[in-house]
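Exercise 7. Given the encoded structure of a 692-residue chain, write a plausible sequence.
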């Protein structure tokens, strides 16, 4: 339908409302500006189109790939989760200026020259329309194109018929050697199955909670790939992860697991020589070749990565656009293995790709052909409850690991209860569990929280005092190379000590938000004389990079500590430095751990950083701390979800403390799920893609 007069009158009211909403902070200025852009581009743009345009931009900013207009009409509160004042304003606008029937709304949007309507009967992708309507889902074209590319690439890679599969008996022989404990058992070893399945296509998805052995399994998969390859010395293997820290952890775990395997296998496979070919683990940005000031990478379909196998850890953090870029840059023949915990929070940016790809992974849904193949290579049958007569091809390439080898204890039990949404069991564990491991700071005051931040708590390692005491123990410098070595060892020890303890916040704003807690902790540490703060930059300041800077070699999420560099005399020079007015960071550098080595950047060159005593749970993904303190806000928030709490808890290695600023916050969070709007799953499970 064309824009009716009613809609045109509503257009002015809609633009006025959007302006007001952006001033109130309910939507971003960018969202209102996008609606204005649509209005400028199309004379007489109808109100439903303008509102839909603003909302699709708004939802993209909140991590959604699209907005489902059908769901929005049915229950705008559930889709947007706005606070009541904003939700009422939206309802009022919709009642006065919008059609309340889906068909009429879709017509108003779909008939616009700025909207490309996707149809199943044509492969055409339209032209330069900024918006795409697919069924009732409205996308920004960039998001839609990424989703299309990811779906197409995934379907190409799960095409088992096209995969080059090694001889099953040979695979079985090696799996028996790599998993000797389970080789004689009849019940299924999921780790063993994951290795077998990964060989069955060019995409393998291995998901599982913390400590379920994703890295342990993938190290065995690597050994298996080397073992069955005709020319293993030429096998090009890459390791990557979304953040530098996760990449370093992956490399360390794989090296250590391959070392253990070499002992286990002896002369049967020269693993050490083969492992040396693997090279360092890289961030995805570095692997793809990020270029300053552009979303494009050096590696792409025209300049593909020269790899036969790529293993990517912490895949839950990969957003839609990055996944599209990664898949574009991988030759069709490359075997891609994605590892991650599907139940963790998705990336900050739009998309929940791993969550979508691993939907229902707990059900298995293996088809008879997959079960037969698995039995041939693993020698173990998949139980009936995990079989299906009809399922997606993707499910055939997905394995969920189920047994935690690290978290058998209280932290694992707490994570499990949280993942099931069982607030009663989780609260009981926190209140009656092993005190040294699990603890809840009840009715917390800011003072009690700061005391915890500075000194930790009885029985559990932690508090920032420990690393700051170490900062004070800087080795004396006399000028030789030995001194440099001890300086670097000290910097490494300071970085390690800082990584042992962390405050993780659910939100940025408010009393218990990361921004104000950072200031409060900093102040408390100054009062305790653990910090000497003169201006923005001071020795011991922990910083987190908030934006990739390729030229400096620092990436979003990297954590460093500000210190005086080597060969700047210690105590005495600090005083003279201050006297010379150099206290505000003129000669300080931020030190970052880069796998086994150190990297430093002059603080004057670091523009996009923030203090990191308290960080958001989102930013903590891919990291673990011996003692993690999860701080929930003092009032309800839509970001307080089960996935956020689960992610926070699973960052803890030895001890976990919950600080819930609002008494019902914990149980309310467990009742609230993160649901990201996306069409990826439908594209992957569409009738035409079903395997039988
Ligand atoms: N089948 C197994 N037998 C013995 N030990 C195992 C087994 N699987 C895993 N482990 C051990 O359990 C610990 C956790 O394994 P791993 O680090 O591979 O888990 P993960 O899923 O990668 O953990 P996360 O990603 O949460 O760090 C390691 O010490 C590993 O050696």
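Solution.
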């Amino acid at each position: 339908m064309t824009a009716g007069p009613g809609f045109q009158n509503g257009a002015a009211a809609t633009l006025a409302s959007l302006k007001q909403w952006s001033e109130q902070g309910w939507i971003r200025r960018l969202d209102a500006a996008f609606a204005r852009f649509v209005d400028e581009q199309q004379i007489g743009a109808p109100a439903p189109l303008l509102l839909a345009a603003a909302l699709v931009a708004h939802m993209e900013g909140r991590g959604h790939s699209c907005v489902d207009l059908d769901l929005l009409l049915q229950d705008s509160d559930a889709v947007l989760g706005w606070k009541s004042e904003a939700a009422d304003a939206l309802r009022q606008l919709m009642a006065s200026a919008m059609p309340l029937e889906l068909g009429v709304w879709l017509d108003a949007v779909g008939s616009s020259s700025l909207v490309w309507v996707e149809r199943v009967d044509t492969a055409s992708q339209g032209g330069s329309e900024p918006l795409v309507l697919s069924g009732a889902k409205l996308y920004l074209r960039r998001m839609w194109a990424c989703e299309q590319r990811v779906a197409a690439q995934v379907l190409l890679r799960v095409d088992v018929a096209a995969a080059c599969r090694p001889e099953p008996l040979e695979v079985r022989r090696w799996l028996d050697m790599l998993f000797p404990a389970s080789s004689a058992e009849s019940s299924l070893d999921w780790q063993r199955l994951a290795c077998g399945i990964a060989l069955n296509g060019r995409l393998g998805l291995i998901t599982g909670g913390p400590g379920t052995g994703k890295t342990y399994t993938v190290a065995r998969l690597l050994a298996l790939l080397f073992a069955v390859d005709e020319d293993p010395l030429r096998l090009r293997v890459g390791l990557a992860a979304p953040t530098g820290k996760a990449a370093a952890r992956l490399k360390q775990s794989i090296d250590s697991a391959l070392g253990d395997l070499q002992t286990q296998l002896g002369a049967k496979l020269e693993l050490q020589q083969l492992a040396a070919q693997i090279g360092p683990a890289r961030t995805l940005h570095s692997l793809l070749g990020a270029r300053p000031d552009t979303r494009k990478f050096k590696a792409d379909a025209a300049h593909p990565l020269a790899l036969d196998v790529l293993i990517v850890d912490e895949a839950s953090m990969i957003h839609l656009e990055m996944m599209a870029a990664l898949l574009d840059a991988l030759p069709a023949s490359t075997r891609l293995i994605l590892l991650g915990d599907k139940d963790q929070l998705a990336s900050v940016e739009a998309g929940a790709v791993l969550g979508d790809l691993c939907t229902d992974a707990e059900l298995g849904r293996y088809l008879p052909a997959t079960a037969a193949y698995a039995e041939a290579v693993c020698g173990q049958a998949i139980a009936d409850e995990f079989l299906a007569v009809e399922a997606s091809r993707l499910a055939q390439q997905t394995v969920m690991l189920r047994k935690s080898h690290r978290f058998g204890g209280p932290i694992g039990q707490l994570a499990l209860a949280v993942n099931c949404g069982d607030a009663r069991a989780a609260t009981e564990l926190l209140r009656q569990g092993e005190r040294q491991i699990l603890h809840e700071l009840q009715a917390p005051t800011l003072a009690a929280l700061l005391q915890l931040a500075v000194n930790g708590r009885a029985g559990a390692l932690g508090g920032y005092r420990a690393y700051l005491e170490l900062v004070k123990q800087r080795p004396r410098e006399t000028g030789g190379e030995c001194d440099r070595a001890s300086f670097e060892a000290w910097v490494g020890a300071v970085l390690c000590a800082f990584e042992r303890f962390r405050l993780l916040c659910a939100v940025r704003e408010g009393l218990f938000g990361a921004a104000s807690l950072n200031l409060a902790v900093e102040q408390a540490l100054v009062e305790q004389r653990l910090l000497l703060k003169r201006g923005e930059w001071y020795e011991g300041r922990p910083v987190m990079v908030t934006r990739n800077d390729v030229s400096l070699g620092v990436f979003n999420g990297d954590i460093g500590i500000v210190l005086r560099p080597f060969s700047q005399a210690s105590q005495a020079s600090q005083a003279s430095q201050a006297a010379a007015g150099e206290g505000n960071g003129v000669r300080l550098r931020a030190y970052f751990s880069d796998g086994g080595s150190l990297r430093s950047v002059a603080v004057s060159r670091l523009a996009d950083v923030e203090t990191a005593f308290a960080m958001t749970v989102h930013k903590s993904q891919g990291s673990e701390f011996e003692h993690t303190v999860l701080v929930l806000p003092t009032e309800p928030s839509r970001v307080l979800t089960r996935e956020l709490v689960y992610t926070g808890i699973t960052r803890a290695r030895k001890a976990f403390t919950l600080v819930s600023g609002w008494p019902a916050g914990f149980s309310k969070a467990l009742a609230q799920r993160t649901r990201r709007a996306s069409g990826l799953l439908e594209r992957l499970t569409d009738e035409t893609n079903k395997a039988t």
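Remark. Residues 1-5, 569-585 have pLDDT under 50 and may be disordered. Students should compare their own answers with the one above.
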